[in-house]
Amino acid sequence: MVILSDWLAAQLDKASAEPVYRQLLQLTQQAILSGQLAPGTKLPSSRLLAGDLGIARNTVLHVYDQLSAEGYVLSSTGSGTYVADTRPDSAAVGARPNAATRAVPEPSPRGDMSMRGQRLIDEAGVSARQWGAFMPGVPDVAEFPSRTWSRLQSRLWKSVNPELLTYAPGGGYRPLRRALSDYLRVARSVRCTPDQIIITTGIHQSIDLAVRLLADVGDRAWVEEPCYWGARSVLQASGIKLAPIPVDGEGLNPRESDLRHPPRIALVTPSHQYPLGMVMSLARRRTLLEYARQHKVWIIEDDYDSEFRYGSRPLASLQGLDDSDRVIYVGSLGKLLFPGLRVGYMVVPERLVEVFRTGVSELYREGQLIQQAVLAEFILDGYLTSHVRRMRTLYGERRQLLIDAVTQRFGDALPVMGDEAGLHFVLGLPEHCDDRMVTAASYEAGVIVRPLASYYLGKQQRKGLLTGYACVAHENIAPAFTTLARVIEEHAFGAKGARERVA
Questions:
Q1: Over the Cα atoms of the chain, what is R_g?
Q2: CATH code reported for the domain at 4-83
Q3: Backbone phi, then psi, for 217, in 5-degree steps?
Q4: Phi, psi at residue 327, to the nearest 5°?
Q5: Which one has a higher pLDDT value, 28 or 312?
Q6: Predicted confidence (pLDDT) per residue in 333-362, tens digit
Q7: pTM of the predicted structure, to 2 decimals
Q8: Alpha carbon 435 to chain centroid distance?
Q9: In 10 A of CB 322, how many CB atoms?
């Protein structure tokens, strides 16, 4: 049996930054839970224990009070303090296995996970690093006008409305919805009113909300092949069955067999296919909209990066052509401003406005109204438009520098695909080259790219690397690409070929 005073004296560290009260409480709890102090054991009186440990009696009294409040001990006036019986009821939990029969612990957490949880983790595409050459899809946050943002934020905080400190109303902060509706009508030809806009935390939440409200577990969804892994994960985690639809130079190209089985949802990136970069033709857009009207298909239009087109004006949205209210338009301000902002939006048909307002409030209990208020001021004062214009020029310059570096090193041997818009392009690789291995090797060398293979659900049709340029300073592009090029040459042409190319 444990002599509590001696054991505690050996364990207490009075020089520790952890208060003696906390140490004494945790050590006594540990002794009770481990069985070192058996049920029914009488604890020393507070005066005796305090004397043995050389601490204030009040400290021991506070510890005993806390142990009693949490059910570890039972106190009786005039009788003393005793360890309570906190052991699980064997009838409820079954017999505890002995050392000989106890099962070997699971070596990994997979045994604790659901099937869809395992699939989500196995197919996850998230990177441990989110910044640097050549991370695709990340803007240059160093160029964000932080002083302007800080000034707008300070002004709001000086006379903050209490309503901005509570949960967001269904749909989000109305002045922001009004500002976004004006911006989307002009910049993206989206037809909407402020009431049709629902503020979310980004594309993932927008898709998740739409799927939860418009589809059931087991329903089918068309997704582009290849497609963005994050959106694919959201759909699968919601129990949606994915049907990969191939894309060609005109975008989504469903086969006859696909058309015979209408999905519940079609997720598309018509203005800039992710990741290959092609634009869905007008004929394909009209065909998709008519098919959706006839078969009651919900189209989720992910309009990412469309503001950043080089050499031509941004293209009109698919939603702007929709006369049947079958398109849910989703977008994010993270790539326009900074990803940590975590503000996205969706435009829903008028008849679904109240449904989505209720749904977003019920599922997510939205807040961040101060952030939304600052963003509304930022847009209304014209800062968003000017920032996008400036960044389009900057990203265009970086894109050209990277393309020039590719051409100088490889000539026409490696094609550049999807470079007309966005924050990345796909650098094609020879068919025999494993783009996953190139990605891993370049990561070890300090350069981040993504393998095109991770965006395919079925058999990979093309080999390539998603190569981002937006968050790389002009002067860093050439040296970073030199590092990437060495890795590519090693895998694509072998050591001898790489030496010959350098020579």
A1: 30
A2: 1.10.10.10
A3: -55, 130
A4: -105, 130
A5: 28
A6: 998 999 989 999 999 999 999 999 999 999
A7: 0.81
A8: 23
A9: 22
- Triad 204, 272, 377: Cα angle to 5°: 60
- Ranges of each domain in the chain: 4-83, 145-381, 386-502
What contacts 24+ positions apart, CB below 8 Å, involve 3-10?
4/28, 4/31, 4/37, 4/43, 4/44, 4/49, 5/44, 5/48, 5/49, 5/52, 5/53, 7/31, 7/36, 8/49, 8/53, 9/52, 9/53
d(Cα 220, Cα 262) in Å, to the nearest integer? 8
Topology at the third CATH level for domain 386-502:
Aspartate Aminotransferase, domain 1 (3.90.1150)
Query: Is 284 within 8 Å of 256 (Cβ atoms)?
Result: no
Question: CATH for 145-381, among 3.40.640.10, 2.70.70.10, 3.30.300.130, 3.40.50.2300?
Answer: 3.40.640.10
Question: Token match 């934020």: residue?
Answer: 153
Residues in the chain, how many?
503
pLDDT in tens, 75-96: 887 788 999 988 876 656 565 5
Query: Cβ contacts of residue 262 below 8 Å, gap of 6+?
Result: 291, 295, 296, 297
Residue 134 pLDDT > 70? yes
For the record, the structure tokens of 117 come out as 């949880």
Mean pLDDT along residues 55-70: 91
